[in-house]
Amino acid sequence: MTVITTKAVATITDFSKKELPLMDVFDIFQNFRISESERLSGEAKGKAVNNEIDIRAMRDQIDHLSLVSKAMCELLAEIGFDQSMLEAKIREIDLRDGKLDGKLEQTKTCQDCSRVLAMRHVRCLYCGATV
């Protein structure tokens, strides 16, 4: 049975009749919340560091792909291909996934209706067949 008494500091009396100051209960709760916040903060910092590493790696990949693309464009220009031919080919490849959005998504084709589907689909959106 718990009884609340009033003294200079309010106390809680438990079954063993030991008095625990009400402020101590509050402090325990606050310390728990503080330690939980510190733990979550540490996790967030770790994730932020990992994200920075991933971003650096992606930037390196982009720089490398930009260099390769530039070299390929210059080689194509040297053998007679012009910018309009390259743009037409880019458009053709971009439309392979059914959307002209500047992105290259891996696709698969439904065996039953021959429609193009994103790789994430396990059933055809058009005929319902398993792909």
- Number of strand segments: 5
Order of helices and strands: EEEHHEE
Molecular shape: elongated
Q: How many helices in DSSP terms?
A: 2
Largest sheet: 3 strands, antiparallel
Helix content range: 40-55%
What does this protein structure show overall?
- By secondary structure, the protein is mainly alpha-helical.
- It is 53% helix and 11% strand.
- The protein is built from 2 helices and 5 strands, in the order βββααββ.
- The strands form 2 sheets. Strands 1-2-3 form a 3-stranded antiparallel sheet.
- The protein is elongated, with a radius of gyration of 32 Å.
- The N terminus is likely disordered.
Briefly summarize what is shown:
This protein is mostly helical.
Topology:
Blueprint: E1 3-5, E2 11-13, E3 19-21, H1 22-78, H2 83-94, E4 107-109, E5 116-118
Antiparallel strand pairs: 1-2, 2-3, 4-5
Give short descriptive properties of this protein.
131 residues; mainly alpha; two-stranded antiparallel ribbon; 2 helices; 5 strands; 53% helix; 11% strand; disordered N terminus
